[in-house]
Amino acid sequence: MLPGVVLVGFFIVYPIAKSFWMSITNWHLLKIADGHYFVGFANFKEFLSLTHLKKTISITILFEVVMVVGTIGVGMLIALLLNRDFFARPVVRGVSMLPWAIPAFVACKIFTLSLNGDYGMLAKLFMRIFNTTFTGYLSNEISAFIVVSTINIWKSFPFVSVMLLAALSTVPKDLYEAASIDGASKIRQFFSVTIPTIAPTIITLVILQAMASLRTFDIVYLMTEGGPNYATNVIGNDIYVNGFKLFKMGMASAEGVILFVVSMLFVVPYFLREGKEA
Amino acid sequence: MVRASKTMKSILLFLAVVALCLLVLVPFIFMVSYSLRTNAELYDFGITLIPKNITFSSYVDLWKNNAMLTTWIWNTLYVTGVSTLLVVIASTMMGYAIARFRFKGRKGIWFTLAMTQSIPWVIALIPLYMTLSSFKMLDRMNTVMWIYTACFIPTSTWLLVGFFKKIPQELDDAARIDGCSNWGVLLRIVLPVSMNALSAIALTAFIGGWGDYITATTILKSKGHWTLPIAIQYLKGPFYTEWTQIMALGTIISVPVVILFLWLEKYLVNLMAGGIKE
Predict the structure, then answer these.
(1) Residue A127 lies in a domain
(2) Which of A25, A89, B156, B170 could connect to B201 by a Cys-Cys bridge, CB 3.0–4.6 Å?
(3) Could you tell me if residue A226 is inside a domain?
(4) How many domains does chain B have?
(5) Is the same domain home to B183 and B109?
(6) Same-domain pairing of B137 and B250
């Protein structure tokens, strides 16, 4: 018990507390020798005056929406498919969950190469299908965002599918029978029987996925580092780049504090729903 | 007529399953396909999934050009393996304590655990980096190992509390009447029925550590301490990027997690589904 508390305390809780302190002092990685002193809200001011601030915020929000809708949409389709009976279902379920296991950095390498204009198989396939010569998938603002979100969705839908699959198996069969006796079509059944029954799970998943997409930026960082022209610059990536690439630790901490407050918007409702257990 | 539409349906279902498998597997297929060719063949051919001359030269070159590859593999195994073991031990103890005993600060710990699993990790990373640097703990493999341990304890404990609560209290009581201590109950009664859940926990911790790039690259700087995710980023030839070798290393990195995942996936699904079926 105690060791776990100490570990989590030292490596997670203490740093978060410290980030609040750092956000109001002038930490700069290259100026550690100068010491650090209180600068009030200067870091926050610096952050708020960033020229790409607006873009970062809107990209983060867009990414949130795309991720929540995308993962739950794809996850639902696949959960519905896996919920049916067919040959070798357990194997297919295992295989379809594989993106969960594959390291993000490996996936990024594969996609970077496959979308490369010279020797990428995906790039060449698209060239042939759409009869175009376009190859700059990561240097065009729109396509870079699409690529990054697609990989993120590809990586995160298995978790959603598992949760939805579990929820789908709790829907009582006789509800469907009753509905079909009443003459409801399959699609009607889905919206009037399935969705209401698993609604609690869906809401939980929306909150979970919203938290997760605020958190993840490794795929963004590895594919584009937030570029081109900040088109994929989600806030997590921005913090990391400011802190570890530009060494503006103080400002990055201020950003972190803001992100902390924003993530509370999701954490608190999640708590109210799930945290009662204790 | 009814029969015909039934065959149609099963054909459609079959097609959907195939499409799902393709969606998931295409990147893997690309990766293996790329890794089995020479650099020259990367440029020459368009969309050829199966290379004309299958060769393992990229794997051989990978080993020849990187004298430290074995070290990197050992580093990764060490960091991920030990942290997985520690996560399982610590979260079992914490989970059991939280699920079964009422003690002071229990709510606080539960609250902290839930918070730490939902807060974006990057917020903690910057202050943690500063702290570690003042303790001279940067660039050590053990540091990364402890960080992984701390990072995966919250989620694991959270999942295990839910699981332990479902084990009937009567089992514990019976054992206690027979003279078992608290530890005895945990080791002799609870652990044997929890093996599946524990392997699921181990799986998530292992996947998490194995797939992490951001933390590793932030902490580990000197080449001898690198883990595989850092190594794969720097795998470049003298004149151009050695894509086939990168794909070969990607395949090597993916194989262990894929095997582990396909083996233990059912336990993970069961553990997570347990949270929904109230």
Answers:
(1) yes
(2) B156
(3) yes
(4) 2
(5) yes
(6) yes
Residue B84 · residue A179 · CB < 8 Å: no
Residue A4 to residue B268: CA distance in whole angstroms: 22
Q: Locate the chain A residue with the closest alpha carbon to B267.
A: A94
DSSP-assigned beta bridge partners for residue A25: A38
What letter would DSSP give residue A27? -
Question: If you count residue pairs, one on A and one on B, with CB atoms under 8 Å apart, how many are there?
Answer: 254
Residue B100 CA to residue A32 CA, distance in Å, equals 47
What Å distances lie between residue B224 and A263, B153, B265, CA to CA? 37, 28, 33
**Chain B residues in contact with A4 (beta carbon < 8 A):** 90-91, 93-94, 153, 157
* Alpha carbon of B100: minimum distance to chain A alpha carbons (Å): 10
Region at B179 (left for phi over 0; alpha for psi -120 to 50; beta for the rest): left
Residues B169 and B203 in one domain: yes
Q: Contacts of residue B128 in chain A, CB cutoff 8 Å?
A: 11, 15
For residue range A17-68, list pLDDT tens digits in order: 666 656 555 555 545 545 555 555 666 666 677 777 888 888 889 999 999 9
Cβ–Cβ below 8 Å for B123 and A119? no
B146 with B105, same domain: the answer is yes
* Least confident window among A6-15, A185-194, B48-57, B58-67: A6-15
Three-class SS state of A38: strand
Mutate to test the interface with B, among A22, A110, A130, A171 (most CBs of B within 10 A): A110
**Shared-domain flag, residues B15 and B66:** no
Contact (CB<8Å) B126/A97: no
Kindly state the percentage of chain A with pLDDT values over 70.
81
Q: Is residue B53 part of a domain?
A: no
Residue A163 lies in a domain: yes
B140 lies in a domain? yes
Domain count for chain A, please give it.
Answer: 1
What is the C-alpha to C-alpha distance for residues A218 and A220, in angstroms, rounded to an integer? 5
The model scores a pTM over 0.80: yes
Which domain CATH number covers A200?
Answer: 1.10.3720.10
Domain with B19, as residue range(s), is 2-35
Q: Do B31 and A106 touch (CB under 8 A)?
A: yes
Residue A9, domain member (yes or no): no
